[in-house]
Design a protein that fits this description.
alpha/beta, two-stranded antiparallel ribbon, binds manganese (II) ion
């Protein structure tokens, strides 16, 4: 069978200015990466009830949870008053925690990126640093926002040799971009850490035994043109969603 699988992608909520218009959206880089990998992206809006979400979840062959603002720390019994918290949206937390949990429980392929990687950990019971630089011992800078291009590669990751990630990348090290100020603190028990930054921060996670459930703390969607190995992460998702993955 040679069909192109449907990849359900969660979205953000934003208010455009002058005049104010509310939108649900997604950066085009995620959409383009799914298409380049052979999938058909489907954008899932916020605010749907459980029944509607279940209906969508049944239809899609795989799930992509993209980057974005911070998860409400109340979701992992964290510090809800930390001054660096930004862009918290309860409806987005609801949607993405649902998608991550269902994808794991029902063996649907999942690629979770940056915020998505953090959602993935929280959905399975893990916790986060509300702010890596101020809370993690001997932390390096990970928040290369603003003045840096999204293709800037400030640090390496070491990848576990026997992981799905290493198989996809074809290597046990990678140079990655880093556009996050939060990170995994306590890893959920059902997750395996498969890549770490030089300061020890967990930069990629997998569910052992699942046909495809991968979280990465970096942004491969911004690197697919420079580094074909990063496109392989999306191809891994699409192949698993198509039932042709290894
Ligand atoms: Mn990083």
């Amino acid at each position: 069978m040679n069909k192109r699988p449907l990849i359900g992608c969660s979205t953000y909520f934003k208010t455009l200015q002058d005049p104010p218009i509310h939108v649900y959206g997604l950066m085009t880089s995620y959409i383009e990466a799914v298409i380049a990998a052979g999938g058909i992206p489907i954008m899932i809006p916020l605010g749907l009830g459980e029944e509607a979400l279940q209906a969508i979840f049944e239809k899609v062959d795989g799930v992509l949870i993209p980057g974005g603002g911070d998860i409400d720390p109340a979701r992992y019994r964290g510090d809800t008053t930390h001054p660096t918290l930004r862009d918290i949206n309860p409806a987005r937390d609801d949607l993405e925690l649902f998608l991550a949990r269902e994808a794991v429980q029902r063996e649907k392929p999942l690629l979770a990126i940056c915020r998505g990687h953090q959602v993935f950990n929280v959905a399975l019971g893990g916790t986060l640093f509300e702010d890596v630089l101020s809370q993690k011992e001997a932390a390096q800078k990970h928040d290369y926002f603003g003045g840096w291009p999204r293709t800037h590669l400030p640090h390496e990751v070491h990848v576990e040799p026997d992981s799905r990630l290493a198989q996809l990348l074809g290597d046990t090290t990678a140079r990655v971009n880093s556009l996050h100020h939060q990170g995994i603190k306590e890893l959920a028990t059902d997750l395996r850490p498969v890549a770490t930054a030089p300061d020890g921060l967990i930069e990629a996670i997998e569910v052992p035994g699942h046909r495809f459930a991968l979280g990465v703390q970096w942004h491969p969607e911004n690197l697919i043109h420079e580094d074909r190995a990063m496109l392989r992460l999306f191809q891994g998702l699409v192949e698993a969603a198509n039932g042709t993955g290894s």
